């Protein structure tokens, strides 16, 4: 009887340990595998108010909503004091790296936009967490040559054919020094793309144009259209209060487009133009202030951008670069009324059909006059086309299948 009692006590001692192991194994078997992803962004993706940064922000949000743990790395001019809650809630970690400011880097054989986004600290942070890496644009890829773990799976979000992009900037630029710099950057990117595109498991392209270029060259292209953050087409009144031009006014293409738009509205004093941007130089501010029917307003937040779009009667979207569908087209189609475009805003016929088209500035001017007299009634038509084919959720699911092979 004594031996039995001793044996019983020994079982009691080990039973809690067995129970804990059993419970842990049961939970482990029922838990889904945690998927983690490094995303290296060319800038801090908030507010999502211009260009490719819109795609970056809403991609992070859509991937996070699918349960992906995002380790976000951002190259910035100056490290921000705090992380915005909108970014914090969609990421596991956020790391910042200051872009290099050495002008001698213009003489590097690597494109300037890429070589200034080089960081030893980034390499250390990538090595700490074993996960696939998604590079946002070729300008974030300079560190690839220093990565120690050659087995790490690398992916690229191909925002532009950078060689063509900088060639276009060179053509649009008035300043002779900048014109030369952009042309040299274009030639550097031409060689850089040839060396690098084949290193990626997949290159996620924004448009048919980029898809066909990459697929012809490196056979690893995947067509994933722009992430834009819009869920449903807004139901709006028939009339808005002004015409709207919005975008990043530090780029030569947008500056050229705005200057030509300002010249149009000088001849149309009966119509009000609002220019919305957080990135306008002194030269642009002077041009705007010299015209009574044109005002400049900051964007600051996504909510403010949507407010500006909802109150606009028509949007002016002009580009001199043929690089597929521009990100801001989706914001205007989902959240505003008429959209007046030229031929470089989109290469998608279905999207062009939702807009008012002008082949040149004379036709753009006529579309401004025509739209001012029209009532807006296109919500249902847009809803039918946009909500079926351009959902962020579906795009994120497609990326997850490719990156995590499931």
Automatic annotation (TrEMBL):
Membrane-crossing residues? 6-27
Family annotation (Gene3D superfamilies)? Glycogen Phosphorylase B
At the top level, the lineage of the source is Bacteria
Keywords in alphabetical order, please.
Membrane, Transmembrane, Transmembrane helix
Q: Does the keyword Transmembrane apply?
A: yes
Source organism phylogeny: Bacteria, Pseudomonadati, Bacteroidota, Flavobacteriia, Flavobacteriales
Q: Under what name is this protein listed? A: Uncharacterized protein
